[in-house]
Each structure stands twice: as C-alpha cells, then as structure tokens.
C-alpha cells in the first residue's frame, strides 16, 4: 500500500497569510502530458515579474485534464456548476520575492464546459478560459477514493470544437508513488502559485493550497482529433509530436485564494 506523501522542501507552500479563499474544490485524476519546448515559444506568454522555470536545463508545456468536484466559489455551491471537467495547456514559471522562490504555472488556454465558469475566471483573474462541451472517461478510477493498486487505470478527457471531438488520455497500472524531491515528476505536478497577465500588462498572483499528490507513471498516453490545430500556431508543431513524458496524479482537495496584484 502506498504511504501518504510528506511535503518536500521544494514543494511546500510558503507560510503566508491565508487571505480569502476564492475557490474550494477537489481536483481529481489529473492526466498530465508534457512536451519539452524551446524557451522562445513560451517567453511571449510569461507574465511580467516572473521568469521561465527550468528542470535540468529544460522547460516544458503540459496538457492537463482533470475533474473539478464539489466546487464552491466564495463559499457558495452554484447548482449545475459543482462537478465538471477542465483541460488546460500550461507552462512553468517562477518568481523570487524576499529571498523565496515561488514555483508557479501560467496558462495558454483553459477549457471548461460551462460559460459561467469561464466568465468568472476571466473576470476575476483574466485567465484564458474558453467554453466547449466536454466529457470524460475513467476506467478503474473511482472519484470517491483513489485506488491504491490497479491492474489498469484509464483516464481520458475530451472536448468538442466545431463538431469535432478532441481528447487526451493516459493508461497506468500498479501503485501510485510518492513524489521525489527534485524529480521531473515533482517539477510537473507540484506548484502552489499561479500568475496571470492582466489587460494593462500587469500581473496578478494567486496561491493554491493542497497536500502533495501521488502519481503513476503511464504505460501509454495519447491525443486525438487534431489537438494541435486547436492551439495557437506557435504550439502546433510541438503538439503534433508525441509527448516527452506523461503521468497521472491522484489529486486532492484544493483552495485557490483571491488574486493580488504584484509590483
């Protein structure tokens, strides 16, 4: 049986005042497909006041699909908006403040199936949300409990664009593993900050709070339906190739705090 994860020095969230929780939910069954990319592709998307983050001299973009469950916004559970899928294309950045390094993510595009969710996220954070019909498939993965061992886990997320269904998926087996400090898996999975460029060119910062996750390495992964054509032109060549790595994270309860503008 896998043991509970203990926070590592590099993964632990900073001890800052909590502020007000904007969103509380569960993020579950996070399928993460990762491509090594040239920094020049991502640099135009890096918010002011942050810089690209590297692991062993390499930087990545990740296509991440997961479930939002039991969602509350400002403490309110909105009917028909509590359980839904999300798929995002993200990259890795960091910010130094008072001698501390905040490892973070930024986003190229985020997909959800409800227009109200996309509108709230755009209004509150200026995150690049879009709305499309979505669906998911989980074989061997129960949303009520993370499997400790499985002969096969299959997790897939899809969305419909112009009548065409696009999807990403992973297949795993065995037991989830604790993240190793400094590993590639930790670099991809463990981030407690987000940064968003604002309409005037400034940047907001928000904190994400959750326990460290466990992960499976995948036996195989896939994308279907011409995903590359869905994203900005500069990413099409890289997304047309097989991912460099992939993994599945179990997920947990999360709290996302209200944003603050950085200097």
Describe it.
The chain is built from four helices and 15 strands. The protein has 263 residues and is mainly beta. It has a seven-stranded mixed β-barrel. The longest helix is centred in the middle third of the chain and has 11 residues, at 115-125. The chain is globular and about 50 Å long. Residues 1-18 have low confidence and may be disordered.
Question: From N to C, what is the helix and strand string?
Answer: EHEEEEHEEEEEHEEEHEE
Mean pLDDT: 89
Q: Characterize the quaternary organization of these chains.
A: single chain
| Helix fraction by DSSP (H/I, runs of at least 4) | under 10%
Principal-axes shape call: globular
In total, the number of strands is 15
Based on helices, strands and strand pairing, what is the structural class?
A: mainly beta
Number of domains: 1
Short structural description:
The chain is mostly beta strands.
Which descriptors apply to this entry?
263 residues, mainly beta, Acetoacetate decarboxylase-like, seven-stranded mixed barrel
In terms of topology, how is this protein built?
Blueprint: E1 21-37, H1 39-42, E2 51-52, E3 59-73, E4 84-97, E5 100-112, H2 115-125, E6 129-131, E7 134-139, E8 150-161, E9 164-174, E10 177-178, H3 184-189, E11 193-197, E12 203-209, E13 214-224, H4 236-239, E14 245-257, E15 260-261
